[in-house]
Specification:
Length: 397
């Protein structure tokens, strides 16, 4: 070990950026070398991506330059892709170099989980990055433009696989965008169809049933057709096969049906479940006390023995805890076990509509929509203070 420990953070998502910021704050000058590795020079706000994907907001609102979030005198930002993690050598192989570490934080984000559905990886689009969001938006606009040329009805049929948070929030924004697209391209709105297909017996699994019913009613009024308890059996270039062989013709299929961890973890020799590592109480990989795994890459169980869903708020809290524990390790102090504290759950249903649970209180409609905006503003404040709130924040309305 060198005289100054080397800390390497892989990924600048919610967990990675919070880890970096907390280390920056708590470490003394020259107490450790911290390197943050990320594929892009920006951090993107995953919970906001459904809006630019549908075209109801600008892509710029969903991303922030990393240089505005960290002090580059304290943290070295390396823009590169991770190719391999060599745990025995304590090295990370990048596409253009190698980093050695004393402490490693793996926060690489997830990959789409298609559950082996044939054709899904090849033919469906996913809301997973700034580039994928641009592609979806441009693809939707292209289908409207082409419909005016060839009159193929499947061009203005849209299938969204999965009615969890991402799926419901995306179909809500898409339903809000359709009237504008119809005006722009002179398309009769009654020919446009949005299908939301979910294999589970309920939309928004795990959410309060009364609020789920409200959400579905709001979206049905906006023109969304739900197929609940109906699995997608196959994804084709021109639609999907659902249930007992029914085909839905559609030129656009967006898959939001789940995410798994990152393939690099299993390749590194870590034991994984659907690509995630079941971490110890201090967020460390079993058998590797200098390796921490957070965000979509980690598996953390609640007191009932069920895994927490991978959300932004759990990743943020893990980032703070992880940084504290690394500082404690460097200073030979006692680590703190990770305990997740839920701040509530909010799902957006498009303009002026949402559902929310905070503590034992339930909210819906305009009030819940304002809560959603408060959640977004709070995150901007946490990572960038008032200047970022003023620059990126979407305020009340």
């Amino acid at each position: 070990m060198s005289s100054i420990p080397k800390i390497v953070i892989l990924g600048a998502g919610y967990g990675g950026i919070l880890t970096a910021q907390r280390l920056q704050k708590e470490l003394n000058y020259n107490e450790a070398d911290v390197t943050l590795v990320n594929r892009h020079d920006y951090h993107y706000i995953t919970t906001h991506l459904h809006m630019p994907a549908a075209g109801t907001d600008k892509v710029e609102h969903a991303r922030v330059s990393i240089s505005k979030l960290i002090d580059e005198f304290k943290i070295d930002l390396v823009k590169s892709s991770v190719k391999e993690i060599r745990l025995q050598d304590r090295k990370v192989i990048l596409e253009d170099g190698t980093l050695s570490y004393d402490y490693l934080i793996i926060a690489l984000g997830g990959e789409p989980e298609t559950f082996g559905i044939p054709g899904m990886l090849e033919h469906a689009m996913t809301i997973r990055s700034i580039n994928s969001v641009r592609l979806i938006r441009e693809h939707i606009e292209y289908q409207f433009a082409m419909y005016k040329n060839d009159n193929k009805r499947n061009r203005i049929r849209f299938v969204v696989g999965g009615a969890g948070f991402s799926g419901v929030e995306f179909v809500a924004e898409l339903a809000d965008r359709i009237p504008q697209l119809c005006r722009e391209f002179d398309v009769d709105p009654k020919h446009v169809h949005i299908y939301n297909v979910e294999a589970a017996p309920s939309a928004l699994p795990g959410f309060d049933p009364e609020l789920v019913e409200h959400a579905m009613n709001v979206l049905k009024k906006k023109g969304v057709t739900f197929k609940i308890g109906v699995p997608i059996k196959q994804c084709l270039p021109d639609g999907v096969i659902v249930g007992e062989g029914e085909k839905i013709d559609a030129a656009t299929v967006v898959w939001t049906g789940g995410i798994r961890g990152n393939a690099l973890l299993e390749q590194a020799g870590l034991e994984v479940m659907r690509g995630r590592v079941k971490v110890d109480e201090y967020l460390r990989a079993p058998g590797h006390e200098h390796v921490y795994v957070i965000g979509d890459n980690s598996l953390v169980f609640n007191k009932e023995g069920r895994p927490y869903p991978p959300t932004a708020q759990i990743a943020m809290q893990q980032g703070v805890n992880c940084a504290r524990n690394i500082v404690a390790a460097i200073r030979s102090k006692q680590a703190q076990p990770f305990e997740f504290t839920s701040k509530g759950t909010v799902a957006s249903l498009g303009k002026g509509e949402a559902i929310a649970v905070v503590g034992d209180k339930k909210y819906k409609g305009w009030k819940a929509a304002q809560l959603k905006k408060l959640v977004d503003l709070r995150y901007l404040f946490i990572i960038g203070g008032i200047p970022l709130v003023l620059r990126k924040g979407r305020f009340f309305g």
